[in-house]
Amino acid sequence: MHHDDEHTENADAGDGRGPDVAHLLVRLLNISQRIGRYAAHETGERTSPATWRALSVLQEKGPLRLGVLAEHCRVRQPTMTVIVESLLSSGYVARSPDPDDRRAQLHELTLAGAAALEDWRQRIGDALEPLFSDLSARERELLSESVRLLDERLRRGGA
């Protein structure tokens, strides 16, 4: 365990209720990034994480204008333009006029894009599963409940 991990893991909120949630969430964010790097390495993935993030956002949010998609993916609009052009040429995204403003365009996930996204998620899951295959039933339940809680809180917060 790294020294920073120990400090963060043992950080107490000072209110007698146990570990400080903010410190735990920062640690979770760091662990999440490590998981992503590990999975990319194990799968040999060369596609930019921003590309998969764009497809994921379109799957979750539906058709979006380029600027809105860029905001959701936390990239600048010129970067998103490059990503979307690549996705359009791959057939993973389709572009159509925005019915609310014919001058604007919407970008939508295609069936091929959804299939590519599902394949990527499967490969990521297959790469990560061996790290966790020895979890006990209790640990699996804890992991499942933690994922549910995090997802619920993020959705409630609009993330």
From TrEMBL:
One of its GO terms (molecular function) is DNA-binding transcription factor activity. It comes from the Bacteria. Residues 21-152 form the HTH marR-type domain. InterPro entries: HTH-type_Bedaq_tolerance (IPR052526), HTH_MarR-typ (IPR000835), WH-like_DNA-bd_sf (IPR036388), WH_DNA-bd_sf (IPR036390). This is Transcriptional regulator, MarR family. It comes from Nocardiopsis dassonvillei (strain ATCC 23218 / DSM 43111 / CIP 107115 / JCM 7437 / KCTC 9190 / NBRC 14626 / NCTC 10488 / NRRL B-5397 / IMRU 509) (Actinomadura dassonvillei).
